[in-house]
Amino acid sequence: MSCCGVVGAIGSLWCKSGCKTAVVASALTFFPPPPSYDVREVDGVWVCEYDPMITPPGPDEEVIVSMVRTRRGNDIPLFHFLCPGAHFTLIHSHGNATDCGAMADRYREMVRELGVNVIGYDYSGYGSATGQPSEADTYADIEAAYDYACEHVDDPGRQIVLYGQSVGTGPTIRQAGRKPVGGAVLHAGIMSGMRVLTASRALGCLDIYPNIDRVRRVGCPVFVMHGLEDEEVGVDHGHGLYSALPPEYQFEPWWVENCGHNDIGEDHATHMEYYQRLLAFLQELERFHIDRKAASMAGEMASPV
After folding, report:
1. Domain map of the chain by residue range?
2. Which residue in 206, 174, 204, 202 sits closest to 189, CA to CA?
3. CATH of domain 12-300
């Protein structure tokens, strides 16, 4: 669709919504799929029943299922995949047309390949979560997941790593600029919601997830990866986010050849490199925080009494 066509279509939707910008932004952004699982409470314990197409946790896997209340009053499910002895806990904010049930195999694989704990959560209105999806609710959702993670780590500013994929980079970037975290991964990220649809700023008032502005305020190393063949969110979004990062937090990006929006690490050609690069980033995070702590201690020692 041409730029004028996009602007016209969005303008029409805006009028039909009663000029409610949040309603228009949500309608353009969120497409929750049919739930792939069901979470219910049995004898005081939350249990999950998966769609038959999804492999349930094996006997050697430890997965804690919880329901947490967000500050906006919705109940969202959390899936805490545990790895014995793990240093990092990764909070994963998934893409648009999926939920935590469909992501379960990827979470398990991350535990095995990276040696980390993984917390997956669903946005309001996705999976077994209550409410309706909106930009504001995704912020409350990740805050609830972060607060949960803080109860299970000793040092959030070093051990929590945020991982946002596609639309999940919105809540990820905002949280990374507001709370202490060890690092962040931006996978097929967006500069902003409206920039995905059109380069025109005529409808800037309807924009959602102003990542291009917020990423400048993150306080941790960031790893950007983006497929060169991404037709849903062009690689220029990845370049823009990387360039806007403070230089001291720019980890070597990965511009992935022959990959689009959803297949980085999914195919045989990129699977191994995907985990190698993530491991390299986690190792860099350990060095970064050790060096920063050493520099802080040296500064304290050099200060006059």
Report:
1. 12-300
2. 174
3. 3.40.50.1820
pLDDT tens-digit profile of 133-179?
999 999 999 999 999 999 999 999 999 999 999 999 999 999 999 99
**Set 99, 122, 137, 230: catalytic member:** 230
Helix axes 135-150, 169-176, angle to 10 degrees: 60
Residue 4: pLDDT band with limits 50, 70, 90:
very low
Catalytic residue among 134, 166, 226, 289: 166
* pLDDT band per the 50, 70, 90 thresholds, residue 200: low
Look at phi and psi of residue 155 and say left if phi exceeds 0, alpha if psi is from -120 to 50, else beta. beta
Q: Which amino acid is at 53?
A: M
pTM of the prediction?
A: 0.89
**230 is annotated as an active-site residue:** yes
Nearest CA to 29 out of 144, 194, 267, 191 is that of: 194
Please report the DSSP string for the chain in residue order: --HHHHHHHHHHHHHHTTS-HHHHHHHHH--PPPPSEEEEEETTEEEEEE-TTSPPPPTT--EEEEEEE-TTS-EEEEEEE--TT-S-EEEEE--SS--TTTTHHHHHHHHHHH--EEEEEPPTTSTT--S---HHHHHHHHHHHHHHHHTT-S-HHHHEEEEEEGGGHHHHHHHHTTS--SEEEEES--S-HHHHH-S--TTGGG----HHHHGGG--S-EEEEEETT-SSS-HHHHHHHHHHS-GGGBPPPEEETT--SS-TTTSHHHHHHHHHHHHHHHHHHHHHHHHHHHHHHHHHHHS--
- Mean pLDDT for the stretch of residues 48-67: 88
pLDDT digits (tens, 9 = 90+) for 106-140: 999 999 999 999 999 999 999 999 999 999 999 99
